[in-house]
Amino acid sequence: MSVPTLAFFNNKGGVGKTSLLYHVAWMLEHLKVNVVCCDLDPQANLSSFFLSDDRLEQMWQSDSTETIFECIRPILKGTGDIAEPRVERISDHLALLAGDLALSRFEDELSLQWPSCVDRKESAFRVVTAFWRIAQKAAEATGADLLLIDLGPNLGAINRSALIASDFVVIPLGPDLFSLQALRNVGPTMREWREQWTERQSRNPEPGLALPAGSMRPIGYVLLQHTERLDRPVKAYGRWIARIPETFACEVRQSNSWPADVASDPDCLALLKHYRSLMPMGQEARKPVFDLKPADGAIGAHGQAVRNAWSDFRHLTEKIYARVFPDRSLADRA
């Protein structure tokens, strides 16, 4: 039985997607949920959140299977199938399948093999499902309960294969026109890819080759980096925030009904404030903002902001967990 996979995806950049995944991963770690983070963004930003530059350089200059690219290298070279991943242990309940800038070299091969699945070519299925199979091997090696997948902000072949590998999707948004337009791209594209993959699954020529379901079910959106005055979003942002429930319902859910605002929208997993100076402080310390200590510079008013961040991310993570695992409880894990 495969381990559930959850992707954080939006084809608009700059909405805090990678930072969101990083913080959710650490909160799951605090809640004693075993997690592997898979960095499938060729820019490898998530890996840089977890690892030092020296460690990343060591990985990228090594021929070992410590990065996602090295795991798919045999496919690119035409010498074999995927290699066994060597997962980087971050903490007791958290591990990383590191990214690699070289991963962008896999884009053309994925594009080439996608139509060949229709022709029942086993090699094509092995290429297109490489990410999912590597992620599942990483989960098996670490005893993971959940796989988190970070993606780049585009609708290319790498993200198509990564989303096929995803059971669930969280869509991070910003309070702007560009995020609304991104929903109009993401919703139809995910439906198209899901339908195309369903058609291809029936053409798998090798019964022994396990395939991902490719359900990529959207479980909601997270609104990030909005500014508030007197507990209300400033007017410039409020205009766009008000339109999110309708756009998400129509473009992603394909529903003709939606709530009046994000506060009453069940698709809204959270409205997260911009933590301003805490974010660079956390990056410097290589910690999530809710784990910052006075020794890291979180003193004075920052201390209360850290406590608020803990509450915000705890609530968000519990909601995500409940939607991925509706038959389980986090109550006794922390």
Describe the structure.
The chain has 334 residues and is of the alpha/beta class. It starts with a strand and ends in a 10-residue tail after the last helix. It has a single domain (5-281, 310-324), classed as P-loop containing nucleotide triphosphate hydrolases (Rossmann fold). The protein has helices spanning 17-30, 45-50, 53-60, 68-77, 107-113, 122-128, 130-142, 157-164, 177-201, 235-241, 244-253, 278-285, 301-324, and strands spanning 5-8, 35-39, 88-91, 94-97, 146-150, 168-173, 217-226, 228-229, 232-233, 268-273. The strands form 2 sheets. The chain has an 8-stranded mixed sheet with strand order 3-4-2-5-1-6-7-10, sandwiched between helices. A two-stranded antiparallel ribbon has the order 8-9.
Secondary structure blueprint with pairings:
Blueprint: E1 5-8, H1 17-30, E2 35-39, H2 45-50, H3 53-60, H4 68-77, E3 88-91, E4 94-97, H5 107-113, H6 122-128, H7 130-142, E5 146-150, H8 157-164, E6 168-173, H9 177-201, E7 217-226, E8 228-229, E9 232-233, H10 235-241, H11 244-253, E10 268-273, H12 278-285, H13 301-324
Parallel strand pairs: 1-5, 1-6, 2-4, 2-5, 6-7, 7-10
Antiparallel strand pairs: 3-4, 8-9
Helix pairs in contact: 1-13, 9-11
Task: Sum this structure up briefly.
This protein has 334 residues and is an alpha/beta fold. 44% of the residues lie in helices and 14% in strands.
Give me some keywords for this one.
Rossmann fold, 8-stranded mixed beta sheet, alpha/beta, 13 helices, 334 residues, globular
